């Protein structure tokens, strides 16, 4: 089969007003960015707020492995499938980051015949949202150091600055730096560092704010560090919230594109799935729900991280009530969860699939805890055997969950019609009775423990002493009602990436906690979390170039 | 009078296809970015290459003072004036940088009733060009450190790395940093630093490349540092040129907007006027010349820097032949050149104006050396007195140069009709006989000396010994035919910013030289040049915010 970019390039895109018309969006509500990308105007979005919401469908997955699960691809494929069976549907995805695009993994707009297009633009600068976030974040950082330079009236402790800078690039050399060198004209020397833009709290804020006013309020709440007396200093005290909002006013508007099959697709925001909540923007999802009868969206990593945060952070904050979930599994990933090495995936191994189904089962049980009914989507790979597929289906049937084979990668929406019918029936059934996992009024420590015990099945939660003290101080400082955002390896239910399958009774160590007061959550970090990736020995950038026809090669 | 942003906000913009139609640009050649900004497609631009060029008019100025000269404002006003007298005209401007916008000076799209609009968008992210340059530059930097991290096959000397990183923000704390701290997983510790994006060589390259192929060739030529054996390492050797070109492919296309009076305006590129050449992109200027009968453009700083580089770098590289120049002067700036302090500018002082005219006279003489006929435009300020204006006119008349009063700030194009008639007549006269100041085959040292003696009227040129050795090595390495780009204070013909008026016989010290092999010039640095500005005590960002109607306040 052709590569993703070859398929995308060969596609004939429809003019965006036609795509918008499928959702009854008038053409003048579109702010065009080129001919095949647009933002929805804020004025138009404001007119939608009293409309009823359609049904929200979350696509999540088993624990990821190097074999790949295809969550975005399935989200796109399911959207196309729903459109094919005549439903009024919109898809909501996250925006890709330039860093991994030029580093390890290539594009992130789906794959095969289930892609959002124009895939090259989406994977590159798109409509500039991430650049706006970078600019707003770094303006705050510059204003912080500038405040210190001109006398430090706020008495900020330069040893206790929480705010780092951000760039949308994989650059390990920027993880730990010393800034302000070269004498008094260049500011105050201090330890600092850069994260990748998707790890910026500004990104998480953009994805959780309800409108521009709420955006500014949240930006003002960002805690940049501590004073000498240990009290917290906010972006508002630095006077940065207004200018940051101005820089973000266009980025805040959702972007509309289409799939290869012309299904309307909102791609907006892309916060990290570990130190943030890993979902596309609330404003995009809410807008889509006001326009479509069915909205298909995704969350980062496996269901233990992505779905939990989607439910406990995004749905809680946005008052969203999902009607159904789709749990994506692949035979390959189940085999790896069953102990097979990547090199041996090509060999039929039903026993390994059956062992790996323990991981699938755990995710099924977890999703049920939120009151959301689910379907398992088996994302088909060409090497899957009948016996392996039958093993997955049998496992699901035993649990009372339907498992549907989906061939969207090869067949587009034609390969997800069966899945779409099952999902639509489930969403229409009224079976959903969504509730977040824990109440706002549990303590921060209790919230961490609840997720650890109910979702990760930890036997014990070991919160570092300093982190526990920090949590208590935030608890008393009025941040007690915030949800928690767990930063844990995505490869295991435990904090040990090598414990595949469905481990239980393990000790979850919380080493560090961070307050994202603007985004509105407390991050609990279990294990080491990378917020600035590095480039591999042979970065993808080496192979990305324009060919003789001016077309992009090497994005895949 | 209302503020710039109030005037801009009150304006009724025409749909961009109508603006384009004034230059016979078909609507499908436009890639829209919102409703009032667009890029011209590369395919369309390629169709223009055999058309004859219109007449090119450079707007330059006397030596700048804190009083302000209004070069961009006059460029816009003159364009509007030419349109009013029935000429087919296009304006070419540089893109503003976010750094100064949130720092000291506010917007940079003209002022009063002579503005390019939408001024808020132009001053903020516009069409994302600067962000693309930031991304491309920093990808190269990441690939450089990554190469070293994975074994440093090219044997790059980490003590002799020339490439810095860039951000479009005023942030003094980033001028001098140490990167790569925190252990082996984070790369190799070394001294590094950030410049503002406009100072990136990638910016200069984007502004001098003729097409995407030339862009990639030039990007590949960027010298990132030296090997242990002192030989030069290029971006091409790091394999970054292809990916950088992909990141810049949209940014390379010129942007079209309009003035308040709907004159077509290309705003594209904005390299520093000290370590680079300070003009808008060659591709925008060339495109405008193929479409319009008259193209009005500007160059940074005073004529000693801006016009010289425009002629010796941009016109030389692009084969452009300007038909006329407009030298902008203000009574206020002449007074300051005549020794008046800023606080005393409100008082009539004809003698100071007459003394200050020495500066004007020197610039007139200099422009004549290039064979370009000129008009002096007196940019009117309300406090100017009749006697002061008469003094300027009398001075110019003595030199055989017409001086025309222009009131575009208050009156828009109606205030520049007389100027437009004079300029059009001059451009039509065939009087121009343009030639650069020096030939390609002078040595690099001779080129520096030529500019210093003929334009700055230095009595002596003192090139630091190490810099001279460096020039000789580049001379021998095949860079001998490059023009020189002088980085000197803009406030004086000398390298001492306090020597106003028309100093001569001074000693020009060249302290440092830099090779911009991709852009295609050698930078000679005289005095200290700031490539990363800082924020002032009260940055403009503190006052920039959205008002209750969602409109931007504080950009001025």
Would you summarize the structure shown here?
Chain A is α/β, with parallel strands linked by helices and 556 residues long. Chain A is built from 19 helices and 26 strands. Chain A has three domains: 302 residues, Rossmann fold, CATH 3.40.50.300; 119 residues, Domain 2, N(10)-formyltetrahydrofolate synthetase (2-Layer Sandwich); 83 residues, Formyltetrahydrofolate synthetase, domain 3 (Roll), CATH 3.10.410.10.
Kindly provide the name of the CATH class of the largest domain in chain A.
Answer: Alpha Beta
Q: Tell me the count of domains of chain A.
A: 3
C-alpha end-to-end distance of chain A: 13 Å
CATH topology of the largest domain in chain A: Rossmann fold
Q: For this structure, what is the CATH homologous superfamily of the largest domain in chain A?
A: P-loop containing nucleotide triphosphate hydrolases
> What fraction strand of chain A?
15-25%
Structural class of chain A: alpha/beta
Mean pLDDT figure of chain A: 95
Oligomer: homodimer
Query: Architecture of the largest domain in chain A, according to CATH?
Result: 3-Layer(aba) Sandwich
Organism (chains A, B): Maricaulis virginensis
InterPro entries (chains A, B): Formate_THF_ligase, Formate_THF_ligase_CS, P-loop_NTPase
Family (chains A, B): Belongs to the formate--tetrahydrofolate ligase family.
GO molecular function (chains A, B): ATP binding; formate-tetrahydrofolate ligase activity
